[in-house]
Give the backbone structure.
Amino acid sequence: FLRVFTLKKFFYSLYALFFNLSRIFPVKKNRIAFVAPHNGGSGDSLSALRTYVEEKGGFETVTISTQDLRLDFSGVKAFIISCLKAAGFFTLKAKALATSKYVFLNDNFMPMASLNFSTEAVVTQLWHAEGAFKKFGLSLPLSSDIAERERKNGQKLTYVVCSSKNIAPVYAQAFGVDESKVL
């Protein structure tokens, strides 16, 4: 377990390194990054928003998902392509995220704790679950290291979207944000 966790921290740091180096480039006012760490943003509010934006036009979109890190061992060509995709996740996609004006997430993106977004960026957490039917974020019993990453992630958020004003306090607590940031 410790090896896996240490390896994850290394990859979080590697992503943050490329992201923070990419901050030398200006923010692109028409770029929207959709960050879907676990499910690729399919079949949820992030997917619906991405589809709407792409149909409307006028924006450059990029999807950032850890699915890009899955290696394909079905053949040599597939393996090479999947390795290039994984390298692109840490380099090209980190740069695209660093230079996005708008960022939408549907889950926790652990490298975010170490990212220094531009003050021009608007970072919005859509979360992937309706309501508050389960515990999430800081409402979970977390190790001190994970809880600290979660708190730092929350500091990067401009807004958190929820389905009702009645559960806004739950979302504020879970993401470690002031309730005024919960829409």
About this structure: The chain has a mean pLDDT of 86.
